[in-house]
Amino acid sequence: PDPLYTQMGFSQLRALSASGRPSPFDAQGDGLIVGEGAGMFVLKRLSDALRQGDTIHGIIAAVGLSNDVDGGLLAPSSEGQLRAMRSAYERSGWDPRDVDLIECHATGTPVGDAVEFISLRALWGTEGWSPGQCAIGSVKSNIGHALTAAGSAGLLKVLFAFKHKTLPPTANFTTPAPSLDEPGSSPFRILSEAQPWPARAKGEPRRAAISGFGFGGINAHALIEEWVPESAEPASEPTEPLPSIPVAIVGMAAHYGPFQGLRAFQERVLGGDIPGAPDELANWWGVQDATWFQRPGERKSPGGYGIDELALRPERFRIPPRELEEMLPQQSLALQVAADAIADAGWDDRPRLRAGVFVGIGLDLNTTNFHVRWSMLPSAKRWNKELGLNLEGDALEDWITGLRDAAGPPLTANRTMGALGGLVASRIAREFRIGGPSFTVSSEETSGTCALDVAVRLLGQGEIDEAIVGAVDLACGPRTFLCADRVHPFSPSGTVRPLDPNA
Question: Taking 70 as the threshold, does the pLDDT of residue 1 lie above it?
Fold first, then answer.
């Protein structure tokens, strides 16, 4: 991702630090800064790791997942966060007071940090703890907000804390923000300097928790334990695979190209020789008229089954009309088809805390439109000279403005939200008050099948009772179509014979 795109889009939603001091819990801080990076981990069953002599950096005791059912996409909900936290402790058999270190999400906003702190206080309760017994902090104070990679950075921090038996400090911390409790009135403390982390008892492992709370109300809470060979062996692991549990499909919906709705799809795929030849793709931004597209070897008049327009009735969803208008088509299409499937299933409007949403997606290249618009600003003056236009003053500025507007509208908070892939599932969850795990899966052509696999596994394990599963992709966009054609050329005739080697 381009850093300019990330930072400018993110700043529309959450104020970036003016001073460059990322201090999520610090009253003297100015918000947050962003960072780039990646973290990767190799996981095994504990029994296999022991048998094969691996170095064990830590043990994942449990992970709790949820999605908020109240509030807005940008407003965190303590109720949703608590469901994720309590789910993790219930699965692990831990008590929250067993944890000595909490790696907070700490988004760096006053509202976000205050709600997270309220959730922690509610989780720990009013008794059974000593003031300041648990250290809290965030790796964001060291490296900035790494967005989707933030959770992996937090896990790395916890594992190094285990290795060095050290409670890490929060960088640049001086005094707590006003929304946090006064020192001594809660079980939590924020460290400005590293401290030794002694074990509670000989052979007892150190324990930590990691929170991640994303846009759209996606909540995750992981419980991590130090590996101590001398400690008691963990609960026995199953040697036989879990039994296969039949999963029923009770609702369906579809919209493929001009075939909108189950009836249209049914007639197209089961009806034999029904008219519906591929049309010349529309909404190609004038690519067909470009000089480079007219060169020999480029595909002429590409055909396909595109969706020329997508209409959403504002009264159908609890989303403001302007927000609906500024969402990318990928999110709009997924929301509409999900609504049709839910209606087909006969759901009522009560909250469903044990249901989840799992959507397979590919990258919607419309997310890059904002970068195209920005990149024109420094490039247009050079183009003015190279093309011999020799525009000056207001004429030049008007020409540049016209170019940028033709590339796409400026980035706003709504458009930032409408371009985030994870929001595809969150919008569905929020709209229909679904409180279980809800997220997207991206695995190219297997994305939808992988999302189905995740849902079936969670249903089979009893973690959820219902699931919305599907996939959405806009394969007819000019960039997607042309790139795919370069990798594996489409049929020159437009005739679809996928199993005919002579086609």
Answer: no
